[in-house]
Amino acid sequence: MGCPRRLALQGLLAAAAMPGLPAWADPPPLREPWPARRPLPTVDLLGLDGPGWRPAGAHDKVTLLNFWASWCGPCRAEMPSLQRLAAEQADALTVVAVNFRESETAIRRYLAAAPLGLPVVRDTDGAAARAFGVRIFPITVVIARGGRGAFALVGAADWQAEPVRGWI
Fold this sequence. Notes:
About 25% of the residues lie in helices and about 25% in strands. It contains five helices and seven strands; from the N terminus they run αβββαβαβαββα. It has a seven-stranded mixed β-sheet.
């Protein structure tokens, strides 16, 4: 992990110029390919209100693992767009919101104020974020059908706009 100030600045910069997002959200998200020979990490994530998640279960649909935290402004700004994508493409993809190292109380407090229509799982100790190479927030790891990593999207994205929509 890098310097917290640098990571915070990178997060603000990476999350920035998407239609419908606040003025501080200007640069487009960065698409990083998943290394061809790198297998998906074997992690088990605890479900907040339902089943957990593990990479072995990501075979029949495209899966988006969105790493977020309630203290992350770009993460909060991105959620409505991500929820719309999940609702529109429910037959073809699964979106899983992976909360980074927050207590169950903090997550529930956030969800009470901003309900989330996505399954929420918990990365309680940050091990999943480290395993997936998450350095700033938000990052969405895209897993192709068949369970292989496709790419990671670094920064907040407008999931209804091109080029992001075409990448899915």
